[in-house]
Design goal:
It is built from 3 helices and 2 strands. By secondary structure, the protein is of the alpha+beta class.
Length: 82
C-alpha cells in the first residue's frame, strides 16, 4: 500500500477496512441491482479479532523490491503463516 493524497498507509488501511463499497449484480431480465456493502463486514461479524492482525506495509510496485523497506520485509517474513 502506498500513501495517496496526503494520507499515510495507516489512514488508508483504516478507511479501506471501514468504508462501504458498491457492488452490482445482474438479476433476471437483465436488470442491474446495486448493493452497498461494508467490505469487511463478514470478517468483522465472524472473527472481529482478525482485523487487528492486518498490518499496513508501505510499498510501490514501480520500485525495486516493490518499494518495501528491509524492516517491512522482515515484518512480512516474520508473520508468514500467523
Amino acid at each position: 500500500m502506498r500513501p495517496k493524497r496526503g494520507q499515510d498507509v495507516d489512514t488508508r488501511l483504516s478507511q479501506l477496512i471501514n468504508s462501504p463499497v458498491w457492488t452490482a449484480t445482474i438479476i433476471p431480465f437483465g436488470l442491474l441491482q446495486l448493493f452497498l456493502l461494508q467490505l469487511f463486514d463478514s470478517v468483522r461479524q465472524e472473527q472481529p479479532q482478525a482485523l487487528g492482525k492486518v498490518i499496513p506495509i508501505y510499498g510501490d510496485v514501480t520500485e525495486p523490491e516493490l518499494g518495501i523497506s528491509p524492516a517491512d520485509q522482515k515484518v512480512l517474513i516474520d508473520n508468514v503463516g500467523s
